[in-house]
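Archive entry. Fields below.
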Amino acid sequence: MSNNPNRGTGVTLSSAGSRYWKSKSAYLGVIPFLVFTGIFLLYPTWNVVTGAFQDDKGQFDTAKVKELAASPIVRNAFYNSLEISFKTAIFGAILGGLFAWALTTGKPGGIFYKISVALSSVLAQFGGVMLTFAFLATFGFNGVISSIFVKLSPDSFLAQSAWLYTLNGLAVVYTFFQIPLMVLVFLPTIENMKPQWREASDSLGGSAREYWVRVGIPVLTPSFFGAMLLLFVNSFSAYATAATLVNMSDFLTPLQIGNALSSEVGGANPQEAKALSLAMVIVVIIVMFIYAQIRRRVSRWESSR
Amino acid sequence: MTWKVKVWRYSIIGLVGFYLLMPLYSMLDFSTKPFAYFQKGRTLEAWKIIPSQPDLAISIFRSLVSAAIVMTLILILIVPTVVWVHLKLPKLKRIVELICLIPLAIPAIVIVVGIAPLYRWISINISESPITLSLVYSMLILPYTYRSLSAALDAADIHTLAEAARTLGASTFRMMAGVIMPTLRTGILNGSFIAIALVLGEFTISNLLNFKTFQVVIAQIGRTNGNVAVAVSLASILFVLLLLLLIPQKNRQKEVLDVDVA
Amino acid sequence: MKFSKLAKVAVVATVSAALMVPTLTSATAASKFATATSASQAGGVAGLAAQCKKEGQLNVIALPHYWADYKSMIDGFKAKYGVKIDEADPEASSQDEIDAANRLKGTDRSPDVFDIGLAVAAKYHGTGTFAPYKVRTWNNLQGAAGVPSAEYTPNYTGTMTIGYDGSLGTITKLDDLLKPVFKGKVTINGDPQGSSAGLNSIFMVNLALGGTFDDISPAVAWFKKLKDAGNYINVNPTQATIASGQTPVVMDNGYIAVSIAKQFKAAGKTWKMFTPASVGSTYNSAVSAWAPHPACARLWMEYTLGEEGASVWSQGGATPTLWTHLVKTKRAPAAGIAVIGKSKVAAAAATAAQSTKAREYLKTAWVAAVGS
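PREDICTED_STRUCTURE:
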């Protein structure tokens, strides 16, 4: 080890020029990541985004984008998509977050914990035709639960299965995979909360409520919002589940995209699909921006960085 | 545990458990019925078909290899990058977060449109094996893995850890691998779980590119009739669940680094 | 050091994975098979069969097993010619089939043959997507002469029908569906803006109400009535939902209803059919211009558009385009006659222009009528 007291912190006493490059050398660390995502993620995204502006012959053309921006049907589908995404993000985050907390109150690494995490991983990926069927088989006509209610209280909404076929019904189905997702991405945060904090709070005379209000929630909030953002985007782009439960292509934006890609009766228009996807990406960027603003205000923990 | 905590704990577990397990039970209920719901009795007919399917074993093997590749990429590419960005390049944090969110923002059917030319090239010039899908899968897990790691990093005080490690003379490599990674153990483990579940659960992209992955074969088995389709889908859930439970997880919480830095 | 151990494991995993990646087996198509426009140019059916055996596999797409009994078609072809059949994406639409072929162009996984609706077939005619091929029975296929280039060949026709669980009663007229017994049970297969079965269901109801193909507002108004009564649900019916009873009333192609009826009969129950008006569509077979297995593709065409195919399709409930000829020459199989009869009632079909107009109307009207 040399005598230089600053060794190891990245600051040296060399000339200003090479100090500039040394400070920029940290950026080298992200190059492998950027190359890999560049090929497999950014290039395909670029294909899609520029495809929104290319007509059949490959010429630059903004007509389709303008047409979609002006269409009330497209806007309506977007509102529905946004609405369901917000609802399922909030409910999924609350229920999932509570469940993640419940897991940490038990034995760490115990059987129940392991099974819950493993099951959450599997169910977070579960969707599409089978998920819809599972809910139909539970709450639809002749379903397991609806049959029970038909006998007990035939007039309640659970005995009729009409509620399942609405936007809120779809939201209930979506929440099924939002909850496990929340558990998976939020659990590490809760687990990293040190028991010493609680001990310190208790030994200073704070009650459980005070602990949560002053320590617990402020620490958890940034991650909570981050996870909620993930849930929102996840729900926003979900396609297969909606396609089975709601057989109407103008109901949600992903359904419109699906129709633009696979329509057998003349609705197929790849440019439209790409333009709608571009709109979805823009929405995600906007929501991310809002999230970043919220985090800046909410996260006192991070402001010391 | 105080009784108040117990009440909360059990009611939440009960509620969420019911929400998640009830639909699965309905699937089990249907798959053990003989064809046509109005018949009485239970039967395992639909389930018995499953072991005799030839393509199943190969597809499971291939999917597992893909999962291994994806996990490798997580460990050697994604985790170091995320930690690096958190430590050294906080300005890039939002950009990296946005990049990691894009795979989720675009529906899978559109992602296929974007990567199709790439995979055509790969199929013609490199290999037609479904294992090549692991490359696009590693992009698909970015949102979850990033969020998992980020959540762990937010609560762990890695800046202080890094400073401490540095002043004690650790090289960058030693600091990253020996000091920071252990605090991320839960985050990485969860990220790996998601990766495996995703590789074994992904359907849309592999189906549209006509690769015979695990879920595509499952769907194929189920095309004969409805009971079999539901049975085999439920079987695939149980299979992946068992697979994940076999991954050794030693004392997750106890190993969180306990650095008392004032 | 833990990390370098991990790195070692990673390298080993990647290398072994690469080694296990199967190498590209190029099915080098003898060029005469890739460009043959009829069996005579390829050494007859025997020549095709021999080359197909060498190719070893046929790639098909979008052929559900319950659709006009394609299960028997596929099993029969496999048994007769001893080749594997790779079935991709049974639930794909006609547009998806062409998209898949384009997406996989040049690979071994690209579909060899298509079974597509008229709209998509006409759309890609002359674009180099199809390889023209005249089957031996071409002159006897109804409607084949309308496509002189033989880029695609009409293969079978179906009539739309309303299939329903027999235990719900018997439907004698369209408005029976508005009765309370059908609450929350009526569905149509597919979204009318994307699926031809969905759109044809609307056309069928429209004709039954006395309307024409040019104006589907009566049908949409009727569906709104059905939705308001709580009888219509937006769910997409699948085999599972029909078997479990969530969608006991399905408006779909007749041949699908036939296969459901067979399944129900085997379980001791009935699936009845009611056809208020005769609306149908003809599907078309075509060979992919870049089929990785050209001989097998052409052999499949000969098989399905010949007598064996006609026998399977007729028993599956679809009317093969060869049927008129078979009935005339008394070669129609009795089992097929039992299912579809001898009549060649030409079901009414919408033109492309009428379909487009209907779709435009549905864009705004459908969500308003049945949206929730």
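CURATOR_NOTE: DSSP finds 15 helices and ten strands in chain C.
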